[in-house]
Structure formats: C-alpha cells, structure tokens
Amino acid sequence: MTNRRNFLHTMSSLPLVSGLVASEVVEAVAPTGRDYFKELGVRPFINAAGTFTALTASLMWPEVVAAINYASKMFVPLNDLHDAVGKRVAELVGSEGAMITSGAAAALTLGTAACITGKNADWIRRIPDLAGTGMKSEVIIQKSHRYGYDHAVRNCGIKMIEVETVEELERAISERTATLHFFCDAEPRGQITAEQFAALGKKHNIPTFADGADVLPPTENLSKYIKQGFSLVTFSGGKGLRGPQSAGLLIGRKDLIEAARMNASPNGDTIGRGMKVNKEEMVGMMVAVEMYLKRDDKAEWKEWERRAKVIADCVAAVPTIKSEIFVPPIANHVPTVRIKWDKATLNLTAEQVRKLLREGKPAIEIAPSSSPARNATQEIGVGVWQMQPGEVEVVAKRMKDVIKKA
Ligand SMILES: *Cc1c(COP(=O)(O)O)cnc(C)c1O
Fold it and tell me: Assuming Cys at both sites, which of 36, 212, 336, 378 could form a disulfide with 184, CB separation 3.0 to 4.6 Å?
C-alpha cells in the first residue's frame, strides 16, 4: 500500500509523464488505506469525454480539497461566511455581488426567484404559487434558447414566453415580465446577440439573466457577461472552474444577490431551502475561483492541443478513419477530437467503440453523444481537457487497438 501511495504521489507531482499504465493513474487509495470505489464495485475511468455531470464533470483543484478539509474542522456562522465569500468572489470576478449556490441550476432558480420576489417576505414564502399575489409571472426567452435547464427557471412557477426577434421581444414585455433569460451557448442560434439582449433589459428596466454554466474557459468569460450589462450570470462550479461538483456561482447586481440569498438556505420556508451549500463548498468555491484566475491558460491550451493531436494522429494512422480537431464556439471551448469512419469500410458502430472502451482495462469514457448505428458514417467525440498526465497516450493506443481489431 505504502509503495503504491508513494508511486502515485511521485507521479502526480510530475507534470507530464507518458506511457504509464493508466490503471495506476485512475486508481487511488485513501489515507485510511481503503479503496472505496473498489469496495463498492464502482469502476473509475479515464475521462476522454469532458465535463459531463453524469461522468462527474471535473476534478477539484488540490487547493480546493485542502480548503474543504480546513473548513471541515471548525464551526462558523454560516451567514457570515456566505457574506464574506460572496464579497471576495464579487471582487475577483468584477461584479457588485456574488453568492455560492448548490450548482448553476440552483442559481437559475434562486436568481429568477430574486427577480420575482425582491425582498418581500410574504412573496418569498409564497413562491412558486404566483397567482393572485401581484408577483411577476413570466420570463421571456428566445425560442432557440429553450433548453433542459430552463426547468430550473420554471421551478419558480413562471411561464416561458418565446420570442425570436427584437420587435417580438419588446412587444412581449409587460408588467408580468420577471426576467429576460439568455442561454450563452445558444447565442449563434438566436437572432438577438448577448450584447443586444443585455441592452434591451436596461432599456426596459427588466433584469437579464445569462446562463454561462459551461462557458469557462476562456477566463475572460467570467466577467464578460457582467461587462455586457447582464443583471445576473451563473457558472457551474464543478465544470471548468474545478470547484466542488455540487456548487456554482451566481454573480451580478447587489440587490438581486441579496434577494437571492433571502430565497436560499439556510432560510427555512423558501424555494431554495433544499439547495443547501455547506461551509466546505463555500470556501472551496472561493478557492476554485482564485485558482482559475491564477492558472496559466496559455500553457493549458497548448497541452490540450498537444493531446488532441496525439489522439487525432494515432487513429488517423488507421486507413479509412478520418479525424479532425475542432473547438466548439462558446460552451466547452476547448480542442476536441472528432473521429469518423464509413461503416461500409470498417464494420464497427460508434456505440460498439464506446462499449469496448468502457469495458476494457483501463476503462475509458468518450463523449456521450454519438451517431445512431444505422448511419452510414459513424462518429465519436473525444474530449482531452479532463485527462490526467500520462492518460492521453493510453487512450490513443487503446482507440487504435479497438479500431484495428474490427
Ligand atoms: C451544466 C449546466 C447547468 C447546470 O449546472 P450545475 O452546476 O450542474 O447545476 C446549467 N446550465 C447549463 C448550460 C449547463 O451546461
């Protein structure tokens, strides 16, 4: 056990070690000597996918884990900590106010609730039962921005009003409008840009809310939407930021952050009481933001490009396979590998590749979506930014082997 631990420790202190046995990379033993995942029969895998929630997204910075450990040993007044961490994070990202939430989805609920109830104690108790109270009951959104996460907005009891053009949006605004909601990744799909959207909110004096949960990196996006004039912005804590997976950030106008806090735990009889954030996550998220701002983003980007090239080159050495490196424009804006082949020349479906990688040793998970088996062209995606040192070479080799065997 000790030898193995030393080995792991030595290894994690080396920046880039290639050619290591990856099962050693993904298995670890706790200081108590227990291997919990092994005991439970849950298999760790190499993350060749990205920051997918169901795949546990990203790994926390060691500094975040240290902060969590630190905070776990003492009692503090939770609201004082909430205030102080919010103040520090607001300074770091350049917004009036900030709060730690239990994820970006919780921030969508709390931020929207804040725009509906303000600081009205009676309304805070009544939400999501809006009828007959005088509370605002509608959120305006571009049709192309509708998404699964808007359920977190609808939790507040509001109705989504879909629009497509600036004219339609202005016509839809009424005394019932609580917020104008914007999904950052959908910007290219809509007719109204982020900048125009924020300006429309200002013009009509209605809060605008940007969901930027998955837009980090680049670093500047942490303050971009606030600078554009959005009233509220959320980021997921457990994706690019590498904070606790069940934490997130809500940043923006001070009065709205105060109202969101009133709608949140530890306050009872609120819409947010079930969205509890503990002291460990609060300090952990603060440190995650600090680390995120301190990291060398250019060096990180170069390393991701190198990894993408290792995968792309390795599989492209197999005739009939085409690979390309692309960078999604807004969300998950990182070098990513797309691998394609013709089913007629290579008798293998994307799902078969996924299964073989998942069930091999070490287990590897690639990006969740892939082409249906009936398609003539089969396609898979490989994300490289959540891989650990030494893993990319293992993934490249395994992928080549899987494909060659077919
Ligand atoms: C992941 C995600 C969320 C939810 O974030 P959590 O931190 O997991 O709650 C919300 N919106 C978008 C666009 C996301 O990608």
Answer: 212
